[in-house]
Specification:
This protein has 12 helices and 14 strands. By secondary structure, the chain is an alpha/beta fold. The chain has 2 domains: about 240 residues, Aspartate Aminotransferase, domain 2, CATH 3.40.640; about 130 residues, Aspartate Aminotransferase, domain 1 (Alpha-Beta Complex), CATH 3.90.1150. Helix 2 packs parallel to helix 8. The chain is globular and about 70 Å long.
Length: about 375
């Protein structure tokens, strides 16, 4: 029996990359160029090639990526943006901070992602964009979402913060809409040593504007054409990400293997009548940022596992429409039942590329024991 099962172990990744990361950091210190510059440009070029997209604009965080995308589309007061109520807070807060109104549409029960039919029902005269989220690394139903968006002449901003490497119809998440937004938060599939993010687009005019907007709207030093953000990626973060990027494909493959192993273990234990398992989409490839099950008695199960030294996490215990900061929107419990049910049932299990099989066996055995005694 191990001392414990962590939900994530970043040390395991760092151990294998220590020399490469230290060399990357030393390269930055030797240059004494810490904001944007050659290191960031090289990262942008590498990611554009990796994702097969024309333009990558690095910025200070995934949240800023969302804010910059909205600004680039001139979305502001009086506008509405349709999104999911089941996501990290930044999805909705970026819309609200732009001055626009987040308009929520419920999720699909199986995917946890935006339900296209619910989304279309909420399109109105003030709708200016649609913001689907590829939650937990599973691509949203982008075929239906794009078809609806095109019918209504609306841009699509993909929140792909958790989905680098996921694909839909053979195309990478974050390259399927008008703009894609990514996060390099340390726990992501491709994570830095601090905050970082990027926006992707195939539109050259939008790319040029995004580069201005991330630097206070400057068109040349000290000359500002418009109001923007101070959202420039640190060169140190870019250097760390460049050291990690060559490993991303194999890390994502390892995540898929671990996810498949979990599902096989749950099936072998006869738990599918008690635990709802995640799955691969028929039309895409999951990035497996998280392996998230559903348990009707989630909180009790989490306590049971914690008593055995097994860490888990809940993403997310309160849907966005019920968040205190968004109370001004006037939503009530019961409006988005699938999102509310998910918030009561979801449980993220330990998942990372180096996860030992022994730990997976312990997790499944503990859940089996919980089901037996609950």
């Amino acid at each position: 029996m191990s001392r414990g099962v962590p939900v994530l172990n970043l040390q395991a990744q760092y151990t294998g990359l220590r020399e490469a990361i230290h060399a990357a950091a030393e390269r930055v210190f030797a240059r004494q160029e810490f904001i944007l510059g050659e290191e960031v440009e090289a990262l942008e070029e590498a990611l554009a090639k990796w994702l097969k997209i024309s333009h990558v604009i690095a910025c200070a965080s995934g949240t800023d990526a969302l804010r910059l995308a909205l600004m680039a589309l001139d979305i502001g007061p009086g506008d509405e943006v349709i999104t999911t109520p089941f996501s990290f807070f930044a999805t909705a807060s970026a819309i609200a901070l732009s001055g626009a109104r987040p308009v929520f549409a419920d999720i699909e029960a199986a995917s946890f992602n935006l339900n296209p039919a619910e989304m279309e029902a909420r399109i109105g005269p003030r709708t200016r964009a649609i913001m689907p989220v590829h939650l937990y690394g599973r691509p949203a139903s982008m075929g239906a979402i794009r078809a609806i968006a095109e019918r209504h002449h609306l841009p699509v901003i993909e929140d792909a913060a958790q989905a680098i490497g996921a694909t839909y119809g053979g195309q990478y998440a974050g390259t399927l809409g008008t703009l894609g937004c990514f996060s390099f938060y340390p726990t992501k599939n491709l994570g830095g040593a601090g905050d970082g993010g990027m926006v992707t687009t195939g539109d050259s005019a939008l790319a040029a504007r995004l580069r201005r907007l991330r630097a206070h709207g400057a068109i040349q030093p000290y000359i500002h054409a418009e109001l923007g953000l101070n959202s420039r990626l640190d060169a140190l973060q870019a250097a760390v990400l460049r050291a990690k990027l060559p490993h991303l494909q194999s890390w994502n493959a390892d995540r898929r293997d671990k996810a498949a192993a979990y599902s096989e273990l749950f099936l072998a234990a006869g738990l599918t009548g008690h635990v709802a398992l995640p799955g691969e989409p028929a039309d895409g490839v999951h990035a497996w940022h998280q392996y998230v099950i559903r348990l009707p008695r989630r909180d009790a199960a989490r306590q049971f596992l914690a008593a055995r030294g097994i860490q888990t996490q809940v993403y997310y215990p309160m849907p966005l429409h019920l968040q205190p900061a968004l109370a001004y929107l006037g939503h009530q419990a019961g409006e988005f039942p699938e999102s509310e049910r998910a918030s009561r049932e979801v449980l993220a299990l330990p998942l990372y590329p180096e996860l030992p099989r022994e730990h997976q066996l312990q997790v499944v055995q503990a859940i089996s024991d919980f089901v037996r005694v609950a």
